[in-house]
């Protein structure tokens, strides 16, 4: 009986002593925590996407706290809400951020673009693109194996019928998919002002482009001639729209023979019938 | 079992770990090459080598002669492109080259059927090392074993580096291919012109011709030629070294280890250990250019595979489309897979419209009989891939780390030492395409700025 008491006593005393030592040293050797940084870190969304230019949310909160970074509008996933939170916490004016969304600049789904070979192996765009640039007949188009889907933390991108499609409502412009895409066909496009986009990255000459995909830009220049703002040009055998000058009038949509011009907001000049057609086929389902 | 080797052949100094013994299928061994008639049109990509792509220096509708330079670059790591037929430039447009998928300009030349040599072709006078390197560059020769690295850039070593040994790669360890074997049996004279000139102008004392022991005939022919020619025999500094017939003996780092015992560190080049490795055909083409002034215009390629009616070695003008070559050779049935290069390291082509480029040495038209595309299953941890890896890597661990996106671990496992020989793939009972994972891992590491 006495031995068990002894054991309990020894354990109790040593526990007490060690506890006191720990308590003392935790005070003596405490690492100073920047409360400001911890608070700012709480305000950030925690996606660690790197869209701000710093490696993680911790990194961005650190530079904001120590004052080496003054811009509070760098967090793309956080959007306007985080800017306002940061502004009120830090006591500065809330600046606005240009609203953007990622967009897959390709309409080559299984109906529009056929495969030119059978690819067998890991279902990854990066790995498929190592074999002769991928199995898509268009050398510039979406491979549809969903590397972008794997990196998206907001469930904003899905592969529908062999083509990655971004949901602009969910997209936070964190640019993870933009960095991941081996074909580099995902771009950030403005969302706060209506504009039209050319959903094609094919740089082949028209003869080839026409063969590889039904919705490839064939650089026919009809949109260039139709544009009243003169903001469309042909670069590398495909039409490129200057978003800053585009008024989303819809003239280019009407003349495009390949239906590869798209707008998030149906252009005002189109008739009801034509409006129904403006949302490209791939985005309707 | 070791083969009886001819007298005078030296044995390898070191043995590699791993490797495999695939079916060699050298059906075209010593068969007389068939010359393909010059095609009506050739399509020549401006980049048939590793390095900077050339710029076209001819215009559409220009008349060109056989061997005329039609594209060139000022970059050191580049190689000029020559017209392989005489005729008219029909078009210059963008297209894709085999294996890389990247777009380059392709010059299409319509043949006039005359094969009229370009007037400017002449035998270049060589008086110094610089002259020799310039001549090699003018010849348009790239690494003809398959790598396609511009040979002139390889010879032009950075200052402070001395090369003491020239290793001639005559291993030809890939199944099917017999073009190096043919060169060593039949084109010995120009081959030795290339070899002796390289040794003379680069001041290299010793040359080692490395050959697998399944090519005894080639060893005998080379040795008797060396004995016959007093200039070659006198210093006894050209050795013929035999090593075990096994794949991948012809990989650069491995042939250096087997013939000299030196190890090339990861991320370093052979010249860092004082060795220069050149393929038999590369030296042969250098020899032809030095003696005749004719640049690299045709390639001897092995056309084989079960879809081909008679396997043969064909002399093809560079720029001929694959479809035309297969038509010429004759197909027994429609191939389900066409590979450019050997079965181990070659690349499946996505379209028969692509053309034969400088570094192609084989064209395989295979049917379902020759290969299996079984579905990948889970790794059973048998470690066969680790046992057979000649570079002492752990392919399965690299694959698992890559799948979990643990790039630090992938780099720690030294993926950059991988030579993509395909032994791991070949032995894997779970049919995991390990080389494909290695390639993916290597490109990702390069993107992250790891070892170059």
Biggest sheet strand order of chain B reads: 2-15-14-18-16-17
Distance between the termini of chain A: 78 Å
For the biggest sheet of chain A, the summary is: 2 strands, antiparallel
Determine the number of helices of chain B (DSSP H or I, runs of at least 4 residues): 14
Characterise the protein shown here.
- The complex is a heterodimer of chains A (285) and B (452).
- Chain A is of the alpha+beta class and 285 residues long.
- Chain A folds into two domains: 35-90, Electron transport complex subunit B, putative Fe-S cluster (3-methyladenine DNA Glycosylase II, Chain A, domain 3, Orthogonal Bundle), CATH 1.10.15.40; 100-283, 2-Layer Sandwich (Alpha-Beta Plaits), CATH 3.30.70.
- Helix content of chain A is 35%, strand content 11%.
- Chain A contains twelve helices and eight strands.
- Chain A has helices at residues 2-28, 35-43, 57-65, 79-90, 125-128, 147-151, 176-180, 206-212, 222-226, 251-255, 272-278, 281-284, and strands spanning 100-104, 157-160, 163-166, 186-190, 196-198, 232-235, 238-241, 261-263.
- Chain A has a two-stranded antiparallel sheet with strand order 1-4. Chain A has a two-stranded antiparallel ribbon with strand order 2-3. A two-stranded antiparallel sheet of chain A has the order 5-8.
- In chain A, a hairpin with a 2-residue loop joins β6 (232-235) and β7 (238-241).
- In chain A, α2 crosses α3 (57-65).
- The longest helix of chain A has 27 residues, at 2-28.
- The radius of gyration of chain A is 27 Å and the shape is elongated.
- The mean pLDDT of chain A is 85.
- Chain B is an alpha/beta fold and 452 residues long.
- Chain B folds into four domains: 10-28 and 123-292, Rossmann fold (3-Layer(aba) Sandwich), CATH 3.40.50.11540; 41-111, OB fold (Dihydrolipoamide Acetyltransferase, E2P); 297-370, Ubiquitin-like (UB roll) (Roll); 384-447, no CATH class.
- Helices cover 27% and strands 19% of the residues of chain B.
- Chain B contains 14 helices and 18 strands.
- Chain B has helices at 129-138, 151-155, 179-186, 188-201, 216-228, 230-233, 252-260, 280-292, 322-329, 384-388, 395-403, 407-412, 423-427, 434-447; strands spanning 10-11, 34-35, 41-45, 55-56, 63-64, 69-72, 81-82, 87-96, 103-111, 165-170, 206-212, 238-243, 275-279, 298-304, 312-317, 337-340, 347-348, 362-366.
- A six-stranded mixed β-sheet of chain B has the order 2-15-14-18-16-17, covered by helices on one side. A five-stranded parallel β-sheet of chain B has the order 1-12-11-10-13, with helices on both faces.
- Chain B is globular.
- The chains are: A alpha+beta (285), B alpha/beta (452).
- Chain A binds chain B through residues 116-117, 120-122, 124, 126-127, 129-135, 139, 203-205, and chain B through 93-94, 96, 98-103, 347-351, 373, 375-376, 433, 436-437, 439-440, 443-444.
